[in-house]
């Protein structure tokens, strides 16, 4: 068999065994530790809690995930990281550290010095932001991912990377979209997420990396701002409805997309991270809760705020992206393999969002 260079920066590997590879000057050999997919679960003893690092932790999802994991594993076992300065309440709530995922050495130092055993990789440029800055998106979403893969494989970590409905494209079946089908996304975000899915699975099969991945739908949260993606109209509408009584929607009223309330998303993440390896028939799963259009969301909000005024000013970039994404995700494998189940349907989601944004804006007015 001829020699192949496995990945950039790694020494050539002849054939498939023995798998001793050089990662940026340091040799590691997954096969010397164990050859099966579950060996990383013994990198910390069964009685210990995992030591978790969350990259890109100051975005829409990271702070909420840190809160959930700290409840489960202890405040000091979960470190948030980002390249931005944390707001005071985040800084005071538990460990925070600066980490640029493009800085391989710094990332590795953090993993080693803090004895990290699980890494949750949230750093990203989302869909519409990526289209506005393709070269930065390529750096963060692809080069950054390579750093994460090498470090987690080298140090025997469990690695969670979320994928997205954006990993599908116009030639994928859209209603419903199964786990395995054609994936030809048309955004740099989608392309980089397909790359992440495939690279994670490759490292899993080749080096035994304990890679776990969920394709999230659009996530709706009340107390954290979304990162300017395509599904984010469904968050902004609550703030504008409560504060101003009107909303300008940048997608067509009939644009159907899969969505999920943040509590369901974060719980799914913890559940798949804790799932025994033998229950994971796959390493990349669709997860889903509900699908709705702007029109249907507006109707449900009007049951609480009947005077809400909505106008439509379509953003062609976001609309083209949304038109290429799934309308409904088929998550039957997640449900049958590790028992995924969502709690929030549309009425519960709307009620919860209005309760939160309403009380938040009352607090702001009182100040
Ligand atoms: N929020 C959503 O609706 C969905 C999110 N996801 C995925 O979940 C993950 C988290 O998403 P969000 O929190 O919504 O993203 P976000 O855009 O709100 O936050 C991303 C974070 O990455 C950080 N970042 C950017 N460049 C970095 C770098 N060089 N080094 C370190 N950090 C860097 C940013 O400062 C930001 O805080 C992402 O991987 C995203 O693809 C997937 C589907 C839906
Ligand atoms: C669905 C996503 O991945 C994200 N919210 C975006 O709209 O870019």
Automatic annotation (TrEMBL):
GO biological process: L-threonine catabolic process
Catalytic activity: L-threonine + NAD(+) = (2S)-2-amino-3-oxobutanoate + NADH + H(+)
Listed SUPFAM superfamilies: NAD(P)-binding Rossmann-fold domains
Gene3D superfamilies: NAD(P)-binding Rossmann-like Domain
Class of enzymatic activity (EC top level): oxidoreductase
UniProt-listed Enzyme Commission number(s): 1.1.1.103
Annotated pathway: Amino-acid degradation; L-threonine degradation via oxydo-reductase pathway; glycine from L-threonine: step 1/2
Pfam families assigned to the protein according to its UniProt record, in alphabetical order: Epimerase
Occurrences of domain NAD-dependent epimerase/dehydratase (ranges): 52-287
Matches recorded under InterPro entries: Epimerase_deHydtase, NAD(P)-bd_dom_sf, NAD(P)_epim/dehydratase
MF (Gene Ontology): L-threonine 3-dehydrogenase activity
General function of this protein: Catalyzes the NAD(+)-dependent oxidation of L-threonine to 2-amino-3-ketobutyrate, mediating L-threonine catabolism.
Family per record: Belongs to the NAD(P)-dependent epimerase/dehydratase family.
Protein name: L-threonine 3-dehydrogenase, mitochondrial
